[in-house]
Amino acid sequence: MSLNNSSNIFLDSVPSNTNRFQVNVINENHESSAAANDNTDPPHYEETSFGDEAQKRLRISFRPGNQECYDNFLQSGETAKTDASFHAYDSHTNTYYLQTFGHNTMDAVPKIEYYRNTGSISGPKVNRPSLLEIHEQLAKNVAVTPSSADRVANGDGIPGDEQAENKEDDQAGVVKFGWVKGVLVRCMLNIWGVMLFIRLSWIVGEAGIGLGVLIILLSTMVTSITGLSTSAIATNGFVRGGGAYYLISRSLGPEFGGSIGLIFAFANAVAVAMYVVGFAETVVDLLKESDSMMVDPTNDIRIIGSITVVILLGISVAGMEWEAKAQVILLVILLIAIANFFIGTVIPSNNEKKSRGFFNYQASIFAENFGPRFTKGEGFFSVFAIFFPAATGILAGANISGDLEDPQDAIPRGTMLAIFITTVAYLAVAICVGACVVRDATGNMNDTIISGMNCNGSAACGLGYDFSRCRHEPCQYGLMNNFQVMSMVSGFGPLITAGIFSATLSSALASLVSAPKVFQALCKDNIYKALQFFAKGYGKNNEPLRGYILTFLIAMAFILIAELNTIAPIISNFFLASYALINFSCFHASYAKSPGWRPAYGIYNMWVSLFGAVLCCAVMFVINWWAAVITYVIEFFLYVYVTYKKPDVNWGSSTQALSYVSALDNALELTTVEDHVKNFRPQCIVLTGGPMTRPALLDITHAFTKNSGLCICCEVFVGPRKLCVKEMNGGMAKKQAWLIKNKIKAFYAAVAADCFRDGVRSLLQASGLGRMKPNTLVIGYKKNWRKAPLTEIENYVGIIHDAFDFEIGVVIVRISQGFDISQVLQVQEELERLEQERLALEATIKDNECEEESGGIRGLFKKAGKLNITKTTPKKDGSINTIQSMHVGEFNQKLVEASTQFKKKQEKGTIDVWWLFDDGGLTLLIPYILTLRKKWKDCKLRIYVGGKINRIEEEKIAMASLLSKFRIKFADIHIIGDINIKPNKESWKVFEEMIEPYRLHESCKDLTTAEKLKRETPWKITDAELEAVKEKSYRQVRLNELLQEHSRAANLIVLSLPVARKGSISDLLYMAWLEILTKNLPPVLLVRGNHKNVLTFYS
């Protein structure tokens, strides 16, 4: 039963079949109520209630309503009220009753349109109301039309309905096939090949009935497992054109799909030549018998084959409907030929047929032929290799999946039924021919039994014929010698010839259609960009005419070469490789345990599919080992190529699902392992904001985390929560994509918070997963701290305190130009926008010039040429474009260059490590990791440590011993013995001038005034505080002097970060320490670990 809430339900003659609810509008006046009460029919209705008002107003009925009840409501198929001031959420109007649940809601009921892909050929994609739209407060004074209100309330709003209707009109002439004509017929014709008529009898003669049946069943097992896997994949979502390629690529991804799709399409194209040559050979044999040869056998095959393939191409290009009709005719001929054989087995044999080994059904012949009798050079696997190609062709229906009405239903039903029917036919023919015809016969009617002859158990001897001389000399008849046994046995021989023609031509026609369809699907996905030309389709059915021509040329080339015996094993292996990957796709999708793997066809098993994949691979080597090797080499080459090109597609493959499962399992397994110092690696939270706005900060962090540690680029959105969340959600994917595009192995994370410090605190606590949690915070130095608001300074120093509270190491990076290039990016975006506008304007003007000859357009072009728009010049060594001139705004060229300094290979020099305080070893580990990187490998480590003046050599030896135990190579060690002496007066004066604006100077004021100033400006530096930490202040100034003296020419300085004790050091004094410590130096990393060992010399 169905429910409908569209306006059409008010017309009795219109059936309800599209929407979910049928709503009867009940007028609220007394008359309608009375009318309702007078109705004595049984109440065939259900009621939904979401409140008393809804219960009174809404009745949902499953029967046709009274037409008069809606006369006041409908006028010419429209709602009575069309006032533009109607409110979408008005519950006191007639339109209210058309809403799904009868109350004011934007929530939409489930509909298929919400789940379609954009551009779906089966219908338009509709966007459901977003969570924001149904969660936020309703906007007031919204004016909509009643019809749009209905659609909003019920989720029926389909933008571009007219376009959808036009698409339906366009689809009107498209030919679609059901499961019988589209799949069953094609698969049966493709499976029943020439092998049935001219090789099956020989297989029975070699392997015997018993092993022959086993060969057929083994082949069927391979195809049946593949059919089950195909059915499972085909019913796990909507299937488009592309057949095996589509199924594999959407399951295993473009790498496997792209590699197998190309060789599968090529195999089908060459298969056309194989089948056509098989047909031509049969025709040439008939010409030989009638002595009507045109030139010679080889050239006659080429001539007949070329003519045949041209005719088949004409049928295919004429359209799928003509091709389908031809297939049906060929199937009828084939069925008649098979029936003709079975009829012939019961027609009494004459003397001529008996001399050729046919005696009708005989138990003695069945017993004699039951066991194998392999001739020289033949065995079970060689005979199996010859028969197996006869069982292929099960993908003939799936290959035209885009032309099926319902691929999800047609492919499983048609494929599996075709396998069953053809297998029964193969088994029946094998058993019947084995029970009727002896293995060897002379064909001489005079070879009868002489009285008194000993038969020695020979079946033919027991039936009156002596074929004993076949043991010593070759004979022409019998199962082992005559490929035309079925023609001999049949009731009317020419019908078998017609069956051979039908089998070859139908298989050729199916391959001629399959190859272009698969190839077109492959080209449409643009995996191989050079093949995009063949993606274009023509006509209502989107026929791949270009693909037909290419397939025709390939087939003609191989027909003219006429060396198909060599290429045939490779083609068989190409098909088997496709089968193997289909089976593996089914296994892989099941093994990945993705919630999206929900095939409607439940008759499959993941382990059976895996067994089928292994079996297919084994059969490839059984058929021809060198052909199998060639197939694997070609497939591997194409796989590597597609992987290298990285096509921009995302099909939700099982490879992605399994990657997730593997990552999840590994992460969970990692949680069971205790941390060990040998496995420590810096796992960093980097406060970059948007990763593109501070590239230098990200680059230096990425230099020591790439391929070894976790790196999370973090951004804190501060402001009104609604706006922040919207901005944050809108940029997540874009910023992560920027990281991937720039080959930066990092994650992007963002939070919305009331203040910057709260956001960072949340990130420090919640980022990471299990053991993969950040242990190091990386921030840029706040260069503008003297001009920044006090709250920003408090937040900046506060996050350093928070990191230490959470036992997280801190790295502060300082470069001379600073990190933030957001203004440069804004100018760049503006330039790109203007450049796009200029190009669009030029294109428009050019188009108009072609259409009009007036001078007005040219005048407009001249005006456009006067626009002062300059182009951007891309830098080769960086991701930031250098902008030469722009009226919109100026920018600092040095800042742009500084932002890329860590992308470049560093010149030969040193990394100076001032390891002043033992923090567990992080200050030493980070520069060591940097020296392992390609860009920093020319930089040597110089180690600076503090020591006593009278023990410099001893401490140098001790440090060298420690570093050697850590196995860290270094260029030199310097023991600095004069760290704690006072700095010179000029340096100290600079420091005093720096902190002067922030000092309280309470000692110069009376006690009352001093207390008042402390309360009013608690952030200022007091004289007492300055005096208490005077020695530490001296140290920072003195260290800068030493750094200037020893490390001014270093490529990078790594320096122990001084720690400000909470409650003792004011924020401004701490910032002054950092400022004076790192002033006028090369790039500096201030590092402080969490005082837990990150280095060890134990094995």
Automatic annotation (TrEMBL):
Domain Amino acid permease N-terminal: 90-157
Membrane-topology annotation of the record: Multi-pass membrane protein
Subcellular localization(s) per the UniProt record: Cell membrane
Transmembrane stretches, start-end: 191-218, 260-280, 301-320, 326-347, 379-398, 418-438, 545-564, 570-591, 603-627
Domain (SLC12A transporter C-terminal): residue spans on this chain: 694-1099
GO biological process per UniProt: cell volume homeostasis; chloride ion homeostasis; potassium ion homeostasis; potassium ion import across plasma membrane; sodium ion homeostasis
Superkingdom to which the source organism belongs: Eukaryota
GO molecular function, one term: sodium:potassium:chloride symporter activity
The keyword Transmembrane helix belongs to this UniProt entry's keyword annotation: yes
Keywords: Cell membrane, Chloride, Coiled coil, Glycoprotein, Ion transport, Membrane, Phosphoprotein, Potassium, Potassium transport, Sodium, Sodium transport, Symport, Transmembrane, Transmembrane helix, Transport
Alphabetical list of InterPro entries matching this protein: AA-permease/SLC12A_dom, AA_permease_N, SLC12_C, Slc12a1, SLC12A1/SLC12A2, SLC12A_fam
Record keyword Membrane present: yes
Reaction(s) catalysed by this chain's protein: K(+)(out) + 2 chloride(out) + Na(+)(out) = K(+)(in) + 2 chloride(in) + Na(+)(in)
Residues annotated as domain Amino acid permease/ SLC12A: 182-685
A Pfam family annotated for this UniProt entry: SLC12
Cellular component GO terms held in the UniProt record: apical plasma membrane
Positions of region (Disordered): 32-51
Ranges in a coiled coil: 824-851
Family, per entry: Belongs to the SLC12A transporter family.
UniProt protein name: Solute carrier family 12 member 1
Lineage, broadest ranks: Eukaryota, Metazoa, Chordata, Craniata, Vertebrata
